[in-house]
Design brief:
By secondary structure, the chain is mainly beta. The protein has strands at 2-12, 17-29, 33-45, 49-61, 65-81, 84-87. It is elongated.
Amino acid sequence: MFQTWSYTGSHVEADAMSQTWFYTSSRLTIVAMSQTWSYTGSYYITNATFQTRSYTGSHIVADAMSQTWSYTSVHITKMSWHGYLIYS
């Protein structure tokens, strides 16, 4: 069995927040199982924050089991206070 699917969604509020994200998964089964998936999401709040998150995982079963996954997150905050920019 081979199966692949993806989901993409976005949400926009004109003066507040824009959000875009997608999820993709694929799975292959022959004698054993191989599974790979990833998730990436990002959202931007116009005058406040920008965040990006990414998840990637893979799962393979042959005679033994091997698993690999990673997680990435970025968070940037920008504010203006009395003419100064503050980043965190």
